[in-house]
Each structure stands twice: as structure tokens, then as C-alpha cells.
What we know:
By secondary structure, the protein is of the alpha+beta class. The protein folds into two domains: about 20-95, 2-Layer Sandwich (GMP Synthetase, Chain A, domain 3); about 105-170, Roll (SH3 type barrels). It has four helices and eight strands, in the order αββαβαβββββα. The protein has helices spanning about 20-35, 65-85, 105-110, 175-200; strands at about 40-45, 50-60, 90-95, 115-125, 130-140, 140-145, 155-160, 165-170. It has a five-stranded antiparallel β-sheet with strand order 7-6-5-4-8. β5 (about 130-140) and β6 (about 140-145) form a beta hairpin. α1 (about 20-35) crosses α2 (about 65-85).
Amino acid sequence: MSDSTNADNELEPRLITETGLDQRLAAIIEPVLIDLGYRLIRVRMLNQNGATMQIMAERNDGTMDVEGCEEVSVAVSPVLDVEDPIDKEYHLEVSSPGIDRPMVRKSDFVRWQGHLLKCETSIIVGGRKRFRGKIVSSDVDGFTLERDEAPAGEEKAIVIPFTALADAKLILTDDLIRDALRADKLAKAEAANQNEAEDEE
Length: 201
């Protein structure tokens, strides 16, 4: 896994975006998150507890904690009250993308290279639309997946263009947990060092 964070890519567009009402919600929420130094992963209206608006977000360095969720919730609530996009009562739920996170930006595929992924495409790629395997490389146009169970007669490695991607999510493994915890620890240490440097100035 690359140790690079997404700090330089806070304005990197998402590959996978919402439709309908969720798209309208994202258009309201995303500018607020960017101003706070967070990135939107996704927004979904769910029929849980009546209705729940789920906002998945993270800091530009890829971290997220309870305080961050609280900060996002406090900042987003008044904007949603003013815009009033939902015509019924709902619960607001802000969370991190989690370890088995949705992959929504090109940098996600660089950052989590070497890990297992399941994805779906909007068009047929190599005779199918659903894939599972390890991310072996990534470039500006797409990523190469080494399938763990390629059918007989099919190539093990397949290149999936980003333009064809409909959904992608990391698969929880021991390696992923270890690397995610390491990345989180590094990001927190870097943030602490930055705060110390600012305090000394």
C-alpha cells in the first residue's frame, strides 16, 4: 500500500456519484465539507428508523474519528435546515467510510493497491459486469484487477476503465485491517507534528 495520503487531492472529483435526491443532497453537503477540510464519500437516504440521511466522509488525509463526525454533523445541519431538501422528518447519521470502504476516487485505487476489491461495472467488460480480485495497478484511465477466481479460459488480470465503474468496495481482510490501522496511525502522528510546529511559530 502506498503511504501517500490524499491531502493534495481534496478537490479530486468522485468517480461514483449519487442520482436523484441523493445527488441533490450531495450538492448541498459537499461544499460545506470542503470548507471544513473533509471529503464526501457518499450520501444516501435510507428507510431506517423512519428515514435516515447517511453521510460518509473523511478528512483529506484519509482519517475520521468521532470528533470529525460531530464537526460535520454540526456544520451540515443548519445548511440542510435552510435548503430543506427532505419533505419529512429524518435522522442525520455521519460516519467514516470504514475499513472495507467504498472506492470513489482514482486516488483510492492508488492508496489501496494490493488489496482485495469487489466491483461492478455499468457496461460489460471482458464478458461480465461483476468482479472480485486484488488491485495490482492503477493509472489515470483505470485499474488492473487480478481476479482470485477467474473462470477457465479467461485472463486472470483484467483492466477496468474508471468510466465503466458503477460500484467498488474493499473486501475486509487481515492485511487490509493492518494497513488501514497503520495508515491511520501515520496520519495522526503527522497531524500531531503539524500542530506542534504551528504551536511553536
